[in-house]
Amino acid sequence: MVMRYIDEMDIDGKRVLLRVDYNVPMENGRVEDDARIKASLPTIRYALDRGCSLVIISHMGRPKGKAVPELSLAPVSEHLSRLLGRSVRFVGDIVGPKARQAAEELWPGEMLMLENLRFDPREEENDKEFSRELASYGQVYIDDAFSNAHRAHASNVGVVRYLPESGGGLQMKTELSSLQRALDLPRRPLVAVIGGAKVAGKIAALENLHGRVDKMLLGGGMAYPFLAAQGRPVDGASPDEATVERARGMLERDRDHKLVFPVDMVAADRKSEDAFAEVVPIDELGNRLGLDIGPRTAQIFREEIARAGTVIWNGPMGVFEMEPFSHGTRTVAEAIAASPAFSLVGGGDTGSALDQYGLRDRTSYVSTGGGAFLEALTGRELPAVEALDTDKGMITTRTIA
Ligand code: AMP
Q1: Domains in the chain, CATH or no CATH each
Q2: What is the pLDDT of residues 124-133, one digit of tens each?
Q3: Which of 25, 38, 281, 304 has a CA-to-CA distance to 214 between 20 and 30 Å?
Q4: Which helix (H) or strand (E) holds 332?
Q5: Among this protein's residues, is 393 annotated catalytic?
Q6: Which residues line ligand 1 (CB under 6 A)?
Q7: Is 374 left (phi over 0), alpha (psi -120 to 50) or beta?
Q8: pTM of this prediction?
Q9: Atom 5, ligand 1: which residue's CA is nearest?
Q10: What mean pLDDT is predicted for residues 337-350?
């Protein structure tokens, strides 16, 4: 995989079509969490410093191909403008005449933001005409939307073939190099800590990680399919049979005992802050819900993390949003913060857990990606990253020649 990044390209004075991911949470028409917007600022500043003009494109939410006023990017463009202290022009248009004219009128150092790409159904259909039209607004294409890179859409995959020069932004560079450092060139031992509730969606990532890591600590709902595969009762939260089968396969391949499971859990009869909860050995969970790892498990996980040279963390160890079930997640977060290991954290909820304990800055890197991060952990190349792979481009050119 060879990708060129904005700081290796000749962009001086050019009009840059910049794909960002401003799919940010909104509250009463205001941006509630601007982490993703802030993550794009280094690329924007880099381009502005080189006399570029910028046509900024993004999606927000799931408007399903129709204009939905609450999902307009207008307030996001205002927020961006405030962060930069420079004006960002907004047109409520994507590939219509207003958008075209505004893009053509840009002077060096000026910025234009188009409307939510997903207001047009052709974005998610990866429609060629839509890609071609978007491409015509820039002379260079930069993709800085890592968190959308697992989608093959018109604005991040289709668009690339219609521009003479394309590359990744600085945010994309940080994300991919952090993944590379953790997965391809890790300082060992490499320890993965996986929790959360989307069990079926994570099993492919686990299978790939199993071959690469030295230890894999399984907490939260992620422990269930393995416990079920070992014949332990997990009546309270039965995972689907296909996932249990894949967990069984991993257990059979686990000759080096890389997999580490909870030995105790916080058992509750319902998922509620005031539910009756008690710590039980794993064999005594019965038909209650295990809503957090227990203290003995937390201690084992802490020790494994303390020995690690590299840690990858995705998914909380329990229902950390509720105080009685938050201790396991907190212990893991604190162990990662205290460790000198290179730590890569991904997934929206995992980032929120770090924020809850004020520990975000004490990790090496927190990915902006949820789905894209997990997809990267499966070892499959992300479609938008593949589209920017100059190696593949060269092969195609040679084949044609
Ligand atoms: P995910 O998006 O898969 O990382 O899942 C995050 C969610 O998993 C959080 O909202 C947690 O409350 C929830 N969660 C973590 N552990 C458990 C558990 N043992 N049982 C139920 N939900 C859990």
Answers
A1: 6-171+382-387 (3.40.50.1260), 188-340 (3.40.50.1260)
A2: 999 999 999 9
A3: 281
A4: helix 327-338
A5: no
A6: 195-198, 220-221, 237, 290-291, 315-316, 318-319, 321, 347, 349
A7: alpha
A8: 0.94
A9: 196
A10: 95
